[in-house]
Amino acid sequence: HRGPDGSGYFVDDHAALGHTRLAIVDTANGEQPMCNEDARIWVSFNGEIFNHVELRAQLRDRGHEFRTQCDTEVIVHAWEEWGPDSFNRFNGQWAIALWDRAAENLILCRDRYGVRPLYYTHAAGRFLFASEIKALFTAPEVSREFDPVGLDQTLTFWSPVAPRTPYAGVSQVPPGSFLVVGHGSEELVRYWTPEFGEPDRSAAGDLDEQAEGVR
Question: Which residues have C-beta within 8 Å of that of residue 159, sequence separation ≥ 6?
Fold first, then answer.
């Protein structure tokens, strides 16, 4: 229901990616899941990479060839060129599922502030992921049991604190992070952390001056 403009899937011996598309960039092309030239890297992606034009130019200068004008294809070639450092180069909002067939690794990445959701769980010996929790619940082996802590956080903060969700056994990729899933292993990597500069207390002034500054 979230992607009225097309759908597709990719399946091999180890992984399956599915996608329903809401076409925003290069609406005539850009079907997903999308792969690189040798079909080694596949991606299913929700969101938008705002600086895809600039990144495409950089990647072309490095010898990459593009079939579309879609920002999804930029993700594929960026991973070929820069690997995990790609995420630091992206300006946008995204939930990315990238399957590297050669390494047999699944990479799940979420944008810096977690604008786009990305959930995962383990059930019946499988690792499942989706952009909505209810998509995970279409698998009958996934438990619907509530997590009391996650539920409390939802009612207190309006949203649970990642990686928790309101459901036991269902997690979310934290903002500014990516999860690498291999054969029996999972590694969560934080690629971005907000930084706050030291305040200039010498120019703070009194309370009235500070209030006026805020106004």
Answer: 153
Q: Are 164 and 153 in contact (CB under 8 A)?
A: yes
Write the pLDDT tens digit of every residue in 5-32: 778 899 999 999 999 877 777 666 778 7
Kindly report whether the global pTM for this prediction surpasses the value 0.85.
yes
The amino acid at residue 48 is E
Q: What strands lie across the sheet with 177-181, from one edge to the other? A: 34-35, 41-49, 92-100, 105-110, 177-181, 186-190
For residue 33, cis peptide bond before it (omega within 30 degrees of 0): yes
The pair of structure tokens assigned to 90 is 């992206």
DSSP state of 159: S
Would you give the DSSP letter of residue 28? T
Q: Where are the alpha helices (DSSP H) in the chain?
A: 52-61, 71-82, 86-89, 133-136, 148-157, 207-214
The answer to whether 48 and 95 are in contact (CB under 8 A) is no
Q: Are 123 and 141 in contact (CB under 8 A)?
A: yes
| pLDDT tens readout for residues 90-126 | 999 999 999 999 999 999 999 999 999 999 999 999 9
Q: How is residue 14 written in tokens?
A: 């180890």
Residue type, 156: T
Omega within 30 of 0 (cis) for the link into 163: yes
203-207: long-range contacts at Cβ-Cβ below 8 A with a sequence spacing of 24 or more? none
